[in-house]
Amino acid sequence: MYVLYTILASLVTFFVMKWLKKRRYCTDPKRLDGKTVVITGGNAGIGKETAVAMAMRGARVIIACRDLDKAEKAVREIKLKSRSLAVLHMELDLANLRSVREFCKSFLQKEKRLDILINNAAMPSVLDWTDDSFSMCFGVNHLGHFLLTNLLLPRLKECAPSRVVTLTCSTYKYQKLDFQDLNYNLLPFFTYSRSKLANIYFSQELGRIAEGRGVTTYAVHPGFVQSSWTCHYSFLFRMLMQVIMWMFFVSSEVGAQTVIYCAVSDEAAKHSGGYFVDCRPATLRPFARDAGVAKKLWEASERLVKLA
């Protein structure tokens, strides 16, 4: 009987885990021939899987990341998997605003088009500081992408209809922004959650500003994804998270589906400024839909990155 109960319990556990990880796939067959796509952090995880999908649809794909060795390796793998030669990389360090400006200057000189910008790169829950003295999570996850998008926005408008997809996380719901301390950097999980909430406000306000100009914008929660983000932590934590990720997290390929959906779907285009989960619009907590806070964050961000 003990063996039977063990087998039954194992089967139940297996199917429960399978159900928990069940996700929709983007089935939109739209081609992207002649389009140019920029993906931050496209050398690994969700970004890499998104790059493969964009290249397979015929797009010219540029992965923007700071580690050139990893980028070169990723480009070779993306080309092989997508069977496309139109994949390249450019150096970008979102923890350094000077690097962001240099990337945009170089990109605008070399590239004539920008049709889809995917703000994928993110720093997990770590307590550190950027080169510009911002907390690492807020500086990379929000301010770096904020400056990048604003500097590339004129090209996006020129190539309209175009799209901006920004990855966020459902952990946004556990924090609110404190405008007296946007650079909060005390508890790792809280500083990460605030940066992800900032991503949502950013996407909403960008949607408002770009309304009627041919640029649509989306905030995407990809789910909890098996990736290399644990590399920033101790060996014991990595071992523990490997078990948890195997049990409950989805693969990078599955996590990329909602990003791909928002990048190509005509249905998604009807919900500019929206929040998407599992290839469909989702409802945000009321405080995360506050247009006044979104505008205030935009204005504060402009001052912090010296755009205002």
String of helices and strands: HEHEHEHEHEHEHHHEEH
The major β-sheet equals:
8 strands, mixed
Q: Strand sequence of the main sheet, in spatial order?
A: 3-2-1-4-5-6-7-8
Number of strands: 8
The helical percent reads 40-55%
Number of helices: 10
Mean pLDDT: 89
Distance between the termini: 72 Å
Low-confidence stretches: 9-21
**What form results from the Cα inertia axes?**
globular
Structural class: alpha/beta
Task: Tell me the radius of gyration.
Answer: 19 Å
In percent, how much strand structure appears in the residues?
A: 5-15%
Task: Name the quaternary structure.
Answer: single chain
Write the layout of secondary structure elements.
Elements: H1 2-20, E1 36-40, H2 45-56, E2 60-65, H3 68-82, E3 87-91, H4 97-110, E4 116-119, H5 136-158, E5 162-167, H6 188-209, E6 215-221, H7 235-248, H8 252-255, H9 257-264, E7 274-277, E8 280-281, H10 291-304
Parallel strand pairs: 1-2, 1-4, 2-3, 4-5, 5-6, 6-7
Antiparallel strand pairs: 7-8
